[in-house]
Specification:
Number of helices: 6
Strand order of the largest sheet: 3-2-1-4-5
Radius of gyration: 18 Å
Helix content: 25-40%
Strand content: 25-35%
Distance between the termini: 59 Å
Number of strands: 10
Amino acid sequence: MALILCLETTTTNCSVAIAKDGEIIGFKEDMGLDYSHAERLHAYIEEVLLQAEVAQSQLDAVAVSKGPGSYTGLRIGVSSAKGLCFALDIPLISTNTLKALALQARGESIQNIIPVLDARRMEVYSAIYSSELEELREIQAQVIDESSFAYALAKGKTVFIGNGAEKLKPIITHQNAVFQTEALPSAREMTVLAEAKHKIGDTEDVAYFEPFYLKDFLINKPKK
């Protein structure tokens, strides 16, 4: 019976879950507006282990949400996951952040699910999935305009879900568009994806795994 610890830190949501054979037995998250992962992630891990009455030594794997998302959030989550895997000599599993977010979509007669994360200005990270979570278009960073996602919207009811959906609402006015703006990636949905990967032995090289940033991390140099 696999015990998998799941860490989600790609947005402001600091989220931790532990699952036993895919069923959640411990869960903690903070859906606040501030990035608090450095202060809270390890405390949440300890709290979730206590909830589940599981010792670190009993874990079979650690799963981390691989991105895209906040550069700092990704680094904290991946570093913490790697540290645990090294210390416990257990596998590292990475999960698709946008696919996990798409699992939260709700509604009847959905044709497409488009998870969207804010990437600053008028840009979002997005992917397109069918209602059965089949990937119809890979993850991209894209600047939004009135024609964005027109081919998906033409096919039927399309749910835009995530913190990037609020940015889309005044621009995409197609009758088939539905916006679920409050959702953030969560360790709760990660457990399903992590368990599926664990069953087939789909793991990462702990030493060399890097988050999926999608865009280069840029540091603005002060003007002289």
